[in-house]
What does this fold into?
Amino acid sequence: MQKLDEEKIDKIINGIGNDEDSEKVAAWFATKEGQLYLSRRMDEEFYTDKDLLETLMETQDIPSDDIYEKIEKRLFVKKIIKIGSYAAAILLPLIIVFWGLNKLDSRVDLFGDAEYVDVYTPKGERMQIVFPDGSVAYLNSDTKLRYPKKFAFSDRKVYLDGEAYFEIEKNASRPFIVELDSVAVNVLGTSFNLEAYSSERNISLILDEGKVNLRPLSGTKKYTLDPGEKMIYDKVNGSCIILANNSYVSPSLWKDDVVYLKNKPLEEVIKVLDRKYDIRFEILEQEALKYSYTILISRNTPLEKVLLDLEKIAPVVFHLQNDKKKYSTPITRFHLSCVN
It folds into this structure.
C-alpha cells in the first residue's frame, strides 16, 4: 500500500481529518511500512521535544541523578500521551466502521445470525407474506415457506415447498433466490408464479415480467426464462422444457381464489381440488384417470357445483361419502369417493 501524504497523517493524528482519510490512514498504519513509520515518528518526537531539551540544559543546581530521574519521568509521561494519541488515531476510524457495520446488520444479516420464520398455508387457505426488503409472496394452499427475518448481505434467500406467486423488489447486487428441494430459482426484479410441491415430480415456473433462471443444485446447468414463457422441469431426469405461455388466463388467478385448469388429467384435477377444498378423493376405478378437463372454478364456488360440472365433461361419477349424497350423469361408468 502506498504511503499517504504526511500532512494528511498529521491531521488524522491531531483529530481534524475526515472519515474517509481516517479509514485510509488506519489501513496504512496496519501495514508493516505504517508500523515502522509510527515507531520512527514516536522516537523522533520523544527526543526532539523542546521542553525536554530545556530540562536537560537546566543542570546548574540539580544533581545528575535527579536530572536523569526527571528526564525519565518526562519521557514516560510523553510516551504515554503519544501512544494514546496514536492509538486513538488508529482505533477511532475502526470504531466508526464497526458502528456502521453494526447499524447495517440491524437491517441485513451481515454476520449470518438471522432467525428464520416458518410459514405453512393449510389446505383451503391462502396467505400473503411481505419480506424485509418489501418483496411480496402469495402462498397457495398446502404451501410451506421459510425465510429469514433479515436477509443476508450478499443475497435474499427463501425456501419453498408448494406454490407461490412472487413480486420481487429489484436489487442487482443482492439477487433473490428461491431454493427448492433440488433446484434454485435466481431472481432480479421479477413477477412470476412458481409451483414446486415436493410431492410432485415436475416444477412449473411461469414468468410475467423481469428476469429469472433455474439452476439445479447438483450441476452447473442454468435455464433462463423470458417474460411470457413457461418452464417445466423434471426433478427425476433433470429435463427442462420451455414453451410460450399461450393461455389467456393468468396463472396466478388462485391468488383471488379462482382456479383455471386447462386440459388437465383427472389425477391433477383432484389434487387441485384437494388443496382448494381440503377434501380427499378415493379412486375406485383407475380407468377414470384417462379423462382430461378444462374448467374455470370461480371464487366461492361450492364443491358440489364443481363435481357436477366435472361429471358433465366426462363419464365419471362422484359420491360424497359423508352424507351419502350422489352426483351422477346419465353415463355412469367410473366412480370416485371423496371423503372429508
Q: What stands out?
A: Residues 64-105 form the longest helix (42 residues). Residues 59-63, 323-334 have pLDDT under 50 and may be disordered. The chain has three domains: 6-105, 116-244, 257-339.
